[in-house]
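Why run this: before we spend reagent on co-expression, it is cheaper to look at a predicted model of the complex and decide which construct boundaries make sense. The entries below are exactly what would go into the expression plan.
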Amino acid sequence: MRRLILKTEVSLDGFMEGPGGSMDWFATGSGGEWNELFSLLKGVDTVLLGRRMYPGYASYWREVLAHPKKYPREHLRYARWADKTPHVVFSKTMAAPDWPCARVERGQLERVVKALKRGRGGDMIVYGGAKFASALTELGLVDEYYLAMNPVLLGGGKALFGGVKHRRRLRLLRSRTLDTGVVWQHYADAEKR
Amino acid sequence: MSGQRLRVFNLVSLDGYVAGEGGDISWHNAGDPEFQQFAERASGSGSTLLFGRVTYQLMAGYWPTPEARRSDPIVAQGMNDSPKVVFSRTLKKADWSNTRLVKDDLLGEVRKLKRQDGEGLTVLGSAGLVAQLAQARLIDEYQMLVNPVALGKGKTMFEGLKDRLRLKLTGARAYGQNVLLSYADARRSGR
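The model came back. C-alpha coordinates follow.
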Protein backbone atom coordinates (compact mmCIF):
# COMPACT_ATOMS: atom_id res chain seq x y z
CA MET A 1 0.00 0.00 0.00
CA ARG A 2 1.25 3.45 -0.85
CA ARG A 3 1.82 5.66 2.18
CA LEU A 4 0.50 9.18 2.59
CA ILE A 5 2.92 11.50 4.36
CA LEU A 6 1.95 14.87 5.81
CA LYS A 7 4.84 17.30 6.05
CA THR A 8 4.27 20.72 7.52
CA GLU A 9 5.90 23.56 9.38
CA VAL A 10 4.27 24.40 12.69
CA SER A 11 4.79 27.10 15.33
CA LEU A 12 5.12 26.24 19.02
CA ASP A 13 1.60 27.49 19.64
CA GLY A 14 0.31 25.01 17.09
CA PHE A 15 -0.26 27.08 13.93
CA MET A 16 0.44 25.90 10.39
CA GLU A 17 0.14 29.37 8.95
CA GLY A 18 0.41 32.75 10.64
CA PRO A 19 -2.33 35.37 10.90
CA GLY A 20 -3.52 36.44 7.45
CA GLY A 21 -2.10 33.27 5.90
CA SER A 22 1.45 34.52 6.34
CA MET A 23 4.12 31.92 5.69
CA ASP A 24 7.14 34.19 6.03
CA TRP A 25 8.20 32.74 9.34
CA PHE A 26 9.32 29.35 7.98
CA ALA A 27 13.00 28.77 8.55
CA THR A 28 13.43 27.56 5.00
CA GLY A 29 16.77 29.27 4.58
CA SER A 30 18.68 26.39 6.05
CA GLY A 31 20.52 23.73 4.08
CA GLY A 32 19.71 21.26 6.83
CA GLU A 33 15.97 21.67 6.26
CA TRP A 34 16.27 21.16 2.53
CA ASN A 35 18.43 18.06 3.03
CA GLU A 36 15.73 16.60 5.28
CA LEU A 37 13.05 17.38 2.74
CA PHE A 38 14.90 15.96 -0.27
CA SER A 39 15.70 12.85 1.72
CA LEU A 40 11.98 12.50 2.52
CA LEU A 41 11.02 13.05 -1.12
CA LYS A 42 13.18 10.19 -2.38
CA GLY A 43 10.34 7.69 -2.16
CA VAL A 44 7.59 10.16 -3.13
CA ASP A 45 6.02 10.25 -6.58
CA THR A 46 2.78 12.18 -6.03
CA VAL A 47 1.81 15.42 -4.29
CA LEU A 48 -1.71 16.02 -2.94
CA LEU A 49 -2.85 19.59 -2.38
CA GLY A 50 -5.89 21.34 -1.03
CA ARG A 51 -7.55 23.88 -3.30
CA ARG A 52 -6.59 26.88 -1.17
CA MET A 53 -2.93 26.02 -1.13
CA TYR A 54 -2.57 25.30 -4.83
CA PRO A 55 -2.52 28.86 -6.29
CA GLY A 56 0.29 30.19 -4.06
CA TYR A 57 2.27 26.96 -4.33
CA ALA A 58 2.01 26.79 -8.13
CA SER A 59 2.73 30.43 -8.71
CA TYR A 60 5.84 30.38 -6.54
CA TRP A 61 7.45 27.25 -7.95
CA ARG A 62 6.63 28.17 -11.56
CA GLU A 63 8.20 31.59 -10.94
CA VAL A 64 11.37 29.86 -9.72
CA LEU A 65 11.45 27.75 -12.91
CA ALA A 66 10.97 30.85 -15.05
CA HIS A 67 13.79 32.79 -13.36
CA PRO A 68 16.20 30.16 -12.05
CA LYS A 69 19.09 32.55 -11.38
CA LYS A 70 17.04 34.69 -8.98
CA TYR A 71 16.40 31.95 -6.44
CA PRO A 72 18.47 29.80 -4.07
CA ARG A 73 19.80 26.55 -5.50
CA GLU A 74 17.59 24.37 -3.29
CA HIS A 75 14.46 26.20 -4.44
CA LEU A 76 15.36 25.46 -8.04
CA ARG A 77 16.01 21.84 -7.21
CA TYR A 78 12.58 21.55 -5.61
CA ALA A 79 10.88 23.40 -8.48
CA ARG A 80 12.40 21.00 -11.01
CA TRP A 81 11.29 18.00 -8.94
CA ALA A 82 7.79 19.44 -8.65
CA ASP A 83 7.59 20.16 -12.36
CA LYS A 84 7.95 16.48 -13.19
CA THR A 85 5.88 15.09 -10.30
CA PRO A 86 2.11 14.56 -10.53
CA HIS A 87 0.18 16.98 -8.32
CA VAL A 88 -3.44 16.16 -7.46
CA VAL A 89 -5.52 19.14 -6.34
CA PHE A 90 -8.77 18.21 -4.58
CA SER A 91 -11.50 20.65 -5.55
CA LYS A 92 -15.05 20.48 -6.79
CA THR A 93 -14.93 23.97 -8.24
CA MET A 94 -11.42 24.80 -9.40
CA ALA A 95 -10.84 24.98 -13.14
CA ALA A 96 -8.27 22.65 -14.67
CA PRO A 97 -4.82 24.10 -13.86
CA ASP A 98 -2.50 25.04 -16.69
CA TRP A 99 0.61 23.59 -15.06
CA PRO A 100 1.08 20.26 -16.90
CA CYS A 101 2.05 18.30 -13.78
CA ALA A 102 -1.15 19.28 -11.94
CA ARG A 103 -4.68 17.95 -12.31
CA VAL A 104 -7.93 18.57 -10.47
CA GLU A 105 -9.64 15.71 -8.68
CA ARG A 106 -13.37 16.28 -8.15
CA GLY A 107 -14.21 12.96 -6.52
CA GLN A 108 -14.92 12.35 -2.87
CA LEU A 109 -11.74 12.73 -0.80
CA GLU A 110 -11.81 9.50 1.20
CA ARG A 111 -12.77 7.31 -1.72
CA VAL A 112 -10.17 8.82 -4.04
CA VAL A 113 -7.28 8.74 -1.57
CA LYS A 114 -8.03 5.13 -0.60
CA ALA A 115 -8.05 4.18 -4.29
CA LEU A 116 -4.74 5.99 -4.85
CA LYS A 117 -3.23 4.09 -1.93
CA ARG A 118 -4.33 0.75 -3.30
CA GLY A 119 -2.86 1.57 -6.71
CA ARG A 120 0.69 1.13 -7.87
CA GLY A 121 3.32 3.71 -7.08
CA GLY A 122 5.50 5.26 -4.42
CA ASP A 123 4.63 7.43 -1.44
CA MET A 124 2.40 10.48 -1.63
CA ILE A 125 3.05 13.73 0.19
CA VAL A 126 0.73 16.48 1.37
CA TYR A 127 1.86 19.86 2.72
CA GLY A 128 -1.51 21.48 3.38
CA GLY A 129 -3.43 23.73 3.61
CA ALA A 130 -4.51 23.43 7.21
CA LYS A 131 -8.10 22.43 6.45
CA PHE A 132 -7.09 19.82 3.90
CA ALA A 133 -4.47 18.34 6.25
CA SER A 134 -7.02 18.17 9.10
CA ALA A 135 -9.54 16.41 6.88
CA LEU A 136 -7.03 13.77 5.83
CA THR A 137 -5.93 13.28 9.45
CA GLU A 138 -9.50 12.98 10.75
CA LEU A 139 -10.27 10.37 8.07
CA GLY A 140 -7.28 8.33 9.21
CA LEU A 141 -5.67 8.58 5.78
CA VAL A 142 -2.29 9.93 6.87
CA ASP A 143 0.30 7.24 7.59
CA GLU A 144 3.24 9.40 8.65
CA TYR A 145 3.66 12.93 9.90
CA TYR A 146 6.70 15.14 9.63
CA LEU A 147 6.14 18.18 11.81
CA ALA A 148 8.86 20.81 11.64
CA MET A 149 8.53 22.65 14.97
CA ASN A 150 9.68 26.22 14.43
CA PRO A 151 11.06 28.17 17.41
CA VAL A 152 8.41 30.86 17.22
CA LEU A 153 5.10 31.77 18.84
CA LEU A 154 2.75 33.35 16.29
CA GLY A 155 -0.24 34.30 18.44
CA GLY A 156 -2.72 33.30 15.75
CA GLY A 157 -3.26 31.64 12.41
CA LYS A 158 -4.52 28.32 11.09
CA ALA A 159 -4.38 25.65 13.76
CA LEU A 160 -2.62 22.42 12.93
CA PHE A 161 -5.23 19.66 13.24
CA GLY A 162 -7.91 22.33 13.74
CA GLY A 163 -10.45 20.21 11.91
CA VAL A 164 -9.63 17.02 13.77
CA LYS A 165 -12.66 16.02 15.82
CA HIS A 166 -11.40 12.90 17.53
CA ARG A 167 -8.27 12.70 19.60
CA ARG A 168 -5.62 10.81 17.70
CA ARG A 169 -2.60 9.04 19.12
CA LEU A 170 0.61 8.97 17.11
CA ARG A 171 3.83 7.05 17.58
CA LEU A 172 7.16 8.91 17.73
CA LEU A 173 9.66 7.51 15.23
CA ARG A 174 12.38 10.11 15.36
CA SER A 175 13.15 13.62 16.55
CA ARG A 176 15.87 15.60 14.82
CA THR A 177 17.26 19.02 15.62
CA LEU A 178 18.45 21.26 12.80
CA ASP A 179 20.97 24.08 12.97
CA THR A 180 18.26 26.73 12.77
CA GLY A 181 16.64 25.51 15.98
CA VAL A 182 13.85 23.84 14.01
CA VAL A 183 13.07 20.35 15.33
CA TRP A 184 11.73 17.82 12.84
CA GLN A 185 9.45 15.34 14.59
CA HIS A 186 8.59 12.20 12.64
CA TYR A 187 5.49 10.24 13.74
CA ALA A 188 3.50 7.29 12.49
CA ASP A 189 -0.24 7.04 12.92
CA ALA A 190 -0.99 4.74 15.85
CA GLU A 191 -4.72 4.28 15.39
CA LYS A 192 -4.79 1.98 12.38
CA ARG A 193 -6.84 -1.15 12.64
CA MET B 1 24.88 38.11 38.56
CA SER B 2 21.79 38.74 40.64
CA GLY B 3 18.20 37.85 40.21
CA GLN B 4 16.59 34.61 39.15
CA ARG B 5 15.12 33.22 35.94
CA LEU B 6 11.50 32.41 35.22
CA ARG B 7 10.81 29.13 33.52
CA VAL B 8 7.58 27.51 32.37
CA PHE B 9 7.21 23.75 32.18
CA ASN B 10 4.19 22.05 30.61
CA LEU B 11 3.05 18.90 28.90
CA VAL B 12 1.66 19.78 25.49
CA SER B 13 -0.10 17.91 22.68
CA LEU B 14 1.32 17.90 19.14
CA ASP B 15 -1.01 20.76 18.29
CA GLY B 16 0.24 22.81 21.22
CA TYR B 17 -2.57 22.35 23.77
CA VAL B 18 -1.95 21.99 27.50
CA ALA B 19 -5.45 20.63 28.03
CA GLY B 20 -8.26 19.36 25.82
CA GLU B 21 -11.81 20.66 25.82
CA GLY B 22 -13.19 21.20 29.29
CA GLY B 23 -9.73 21.06 30.81
CA ASP B 24 -9.29 17.42 29.87
CA ILE B 25 -5.82 16.22 30.82
CA SER B 26 -6.55 12.51 30.63
CA TRP B 27 -4.13 12.24 27.71
CA HIS B 28 -1.18 13.48 29.81
CA ASN B 29 1.52 10.86 29.87
CA ALA B 30 4.96 11.52 31.28
CA GLY B 31 5.81 7.93 32.13
CA ASP B 32 9.39 7.10 31.25
CA PRO B 33 12.18 6.06 33.66
CA GLU B 34 14.56 8.78 32.49
CA PHE B 35 11.87 11.40 32.60
CA GLN B 36 11.08 10.27 36.12
CA GLN B 37 14.68 11.13 37.03
CA PHE B 38 14.26 14.53 35.41
CA ALA B 39 11.07 15.15 37.40
CA GLU B 40 12.68 14.09 40.66
CA ARG B 41 15.67 16.38 40.11
CA ALA B 42 13.46 19.28 39.09
CA SER B 43 11.05 18.96 42.00
CA GLY B 44 13.94 18.93 44.47
CA SER B 45 15.74 21.92 42.97
CA GLY B 46 14.46 24.47 45.45
CA SER B 47 12.79 26.46 42.70
CA THR B 48 9.80 28.57 43.75
CA LEU B 49 6.67 27.27 42.05
CA LEU B 50 4.17 29.79 40.65
CA PHE B 51 0.56 28.83 39.97
CA GLY B 52 -2.77 30.11 38.83
CA ARG B 53 -5.75 29.03 40.91
CA VAL B 54 -6.91 26.02 38.90
CA THR B 55 -3.56 24.24 38.68
CA TYR B 56 -2.82 25.11 42.30
CA GLN B 57 -6.02 23.52 43.51
CA LEU B 58 -5.46 20.42 41.38
CA MET B 59 -1.95 19.91 42.70
CA ALA B 60 -2.83 20.85 46.27
CA GLY B 61 -5.42 18.11 46.13
CA TYR B 62 -2.92 15.49 45.05
CA TRP B 63 0.67 15.92 46.19
CA PRO B 64 0.06 16.02 49.97
CA THR B 65 -2.02 12.81 49.84
CA PRO B 66 -0.74 9.40 51.04
CA GLU B 67 -1.42 8.07 47.53
CA ALA B 68 1.02 10.55 45.97
CA ARG B 69 3.62 9.85 48.62
CA ARG B 70 3.27 6.14 47.94
CA SER B 71 3.38 6.19 44.12
CA ASP B 72 5.85 9.03 43.62
CA PRO B 73 7.65 9.69 46.92
CA ILE B 74 10.55 11.80 45.71
CA VAL B 75 8.52 14.10 43.50
CA ALA B 76 5.84 14.37 46.19
CA GLN B 77 8.42 15.45 48.75
CA GLY B 78 9.91 17.98 46.33
CA MET B 79 6.52 19.40 45.45
CA ASN B 80 5.38 19.60 49.07
CA ASP B 81 8.62 21.17 50.29
CA SER B 82 8.98 23.73 47.49
CA PRO B 83 8.14 27.35 48.19
CA LYS B 84 4.98 28.26 46.26
CA VAL B 85 3.13 31.37 45.15
CA VAL B 86 -0.46 31.22 43.90
CA PHE B 87 -1.93 34.20 42.06
CA SER B 88 -5.68 34.50 42.51
CA ARG B 89 -8.27 37.15 43.24
CA THR B 90 -10.89 34.61 44.26
CA LEU B 91 -9.07 31.94 46.23
CA LYS B 92 -9.99 32.36 49.90
CA LYS B 93 -7.16 30.39 51.37
CA ALA B 94 -4.11 28.54 50.10
CA ASP B 95 -3.13 25.92 52.63
CA TRP B 96 -0.82 23.62 50.70
CA SER B 97 2.53 23.77 52.51
CA ASN B 98 4.80 26.78 51.98
CA THR B 99 2.31 28.77 49.92
CA ARG B 100 1.98 32.53 49.64
CA LEU B 101 -1.27 33.85 48.18
CA VAL B 102 -1.01 36.95 45.99
CA LYS B 103 -4.28 38.66 45.10
CA ASP B 104 -3.22 41.23 42.53
CA ASP B 105 -0.48 42.89 40.48
CA LEU B 106 0.77 39.65 38.95
CA LEU B 107 3.34 41.34 36.74
CA GLY B 108 4.68 43.62 39.48
CA GLU B 109 5.01 40.70 41.88
CA VAL B 110 6.77 38.51 39.32
CA ARG B 111 9.19 41.33 38.43
CA LYS B 112 9.98 41.69 42.12
CA LEU B 113 10.57 37.93 42.48
CA LYS B 114 12.88 37.95 39.47
CA ARG B 115 15.01 40.70 41.00
CA GLN B 116 15.56 38.57 44.11
CA ASP B 117 18.30 35.99 44.33
CA GLY B 118 17.06 32.44 44.50
CA GLU B 119 16.91 28.99 42.96
CA GLY B 120 14.66 30.13 40.14
CA LEU B 121 10.94 30.43 39.47
CA THR B 122 8.93 27.73 37.73
CA VAL B 123 5.39 27.89 36.44
CA LEU B 124 3.60 24.56 36.09
CA GLY B 125 0.29 24.30 34.22
CA SER B 126 -1.43 27.64 34.79
CA ALA B 127 -2.22 28.43 31.15
CA GLY B 128 -3.80 31.78 31.88
CA LEU B 129 -0.86 32.91 33.98
CA VAL B 130 1.61 31.84 31.32
CA ALA B 131 -0.25 33.82 28.66
CA GLN B 132 0.01 37.02 30.68
CA LEU B 133 3.65 36.47 31.56
CA ALA B 134 4.54 35.58 27.97
CA GLN B 135 2.85 38.69 26.64
CA ALA B 136 4.82 40.78 29.17
CA ARG B 137 8.07 39.08 28.02
CA LEU B 138 8.83 37.98 31.58
CA ILE B 139 9.45 34.33 30.75
CA ASP B 140 13.10 33.39 30.24
CA GLU B 141 12.67 29.75 29.35
CA TYR B 142 9.90 27.54 27.99
CA GLN B 143 10.05 23.78 28.47
CA MET B 144 7.44 21.73 26.66
CA LEU B 145 7.12 17.99 26.94
CA VAL B 146 5.44 17.12 23.65
CA ASN B 147 3.06 14.16 23.88
CA PRO B 148 2.38 12.22 20.65
CA VAL B 149 -1.31 13.05 20.54
CA ALA B 150 -3.38 15.31 18.28
CA LEU B 151 -6.31 16.80 20.20
CA GLY B 152 -7.92 19.04 17.58
CA LYS B 153 -9.21 21.50 20.17
CA GLY B 154 -8.13 22.69 23.55
CA LYS B 155 -6.43 25.33 25.60
CA THR B 156 -3.00 26.71 24.84
CA MET B 157 -0.81 28.61 27.24
CA PHE B 158 -0.53 31.43 24.72
CA GLU B 159 -4.15 32.52 24.47
CA GLY B 160 -4.30 36.21 23.67
CA LEU B 161 -0.65 36.57 22.73
CA LYS B 162 -0.61 39.72 20.62
CA ASP B 163 2.90 39.77 19.30
CA ARG B 164 4.97 37.25 17.45
CA LEU B 165 7.71 35.90 19.73
CA ARG B 166 10.87 34.42 18.33
CA LEU B 167 12.49 31.81 20.60
CA LYS B 168 15.84 30.08 20.61
CA LEU B 169 15.99 26.30 20.92
CA THR B 170 18.28 25.33 23.78
CA GLY B 171 17.53 21.62 23.97
CA ALA B 172 15.58 18.80 22.36
CA ARG B 173 15.54 15.33 23.82
CA ALA B 174 13.26 12.32 23.54
CA TYR B 175 12.02 10.57 26.67
CA GLY B 176 10.30 7.48 25.33
CA GLN B 177 7.43 8.69 23.20
CA ASN B 178 7.64 12.26 24.44
CA VAL B 179 10.06 14.96 23.35
CA LEU B 180 11.23 17.66 25.75
CA LEU B 181 11.82 20.90 23.87
CA SER B 182 13.49 23.78 25.68
CA TYR B 183 13.51 27.34 24.41
CA ALA B 184 14.92 30.63 25.63
CA ASP B 185 13.30 33.94 24.76
CA ALA B 186 15.64 35.06 21.96
CA ARG B 187 15.58 38.63 23.14
CA ARG B 188 16.55 37.63 26.66
CA SER B 189 19.15 34.89 26.02
CA GLY B 190 22.71 35.74 26.88
CA ARG B 191 21.73 37.23 30.22
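DSSP finds five helices and eleven strands in chain A. The CA atoms of residues 171 and 188 of chain A lie 5 Å apart. Bring this page to Monday's planning discussion.
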